[in-house]
Amino acid sequence: MAWLVYACLLVVLLASPASASRSLAVAGGDPTGGFTAVSLSERNFVVQHPYDLPSNARYKFDGGVRQLWVLASDKPHDRQSNTSPRTEIRMTGYDYSSGVWQFEGYGYVPSGTTGVSVMQVFGAGESATTLMLHVYDGALRYYDRQVVEEHIYDRWFRLNVVHDVDASTLAVFVDGVERLRVPGRGGGSHYFKFGVYAQRHDSSCMESRWKDIKILKKI
Prior knowledge:
By secondary structure, the chain is mainly β. 12% of the residues lie in helices and 45% in strands. It has 2 helices and 15 strands. Strands 1, 3, 4, 6, 11, 12, 13 and 15 form an 8-stranded antiparallel β-sheet that branches. Keywords: Signal.
């Protein structure tokens, strides 16, 4: 009978949500496996910030950490733009229209920041973006829809976004675990952005921090 009790306990443990998450992480492996990182320099990191302010009024790069913040009352990033306030980094030099590309970075969102996009894949067929990751009340969401990851406030999390252009799919990994898989949205050219870009019901101040940013391509 002892072996039967042990077997039942094993089944229960394997069926638990925590065990399922661990299994998914192990089964998926490192999301960067099979990818090669491209060469990046500071020229690839272009800061978009309120047009009436210098970049250092809303952006700081110190000790390997990129700190970006914006106020709900700030101007847009361009005098001719009607978009909401933002302080974002637009990754340049590696715009892509085919193949499989990946963004990797470690993000941090302080508590109180809400109603904001912290990462996006720009370019689509009938909209501006193929993917946006928003933060609402401490949860990372696909746009303002399904939750990608709960409880991201005040902690560093590893974010990997894989875009297979030819298959028209995107996958989002948080801390090595796949949390989202969605179809693409078309478009002829794409690039990655991260930082803070005000959305609906935004807080008066929005901030995110990033480090160890990589762009990778599947060879």
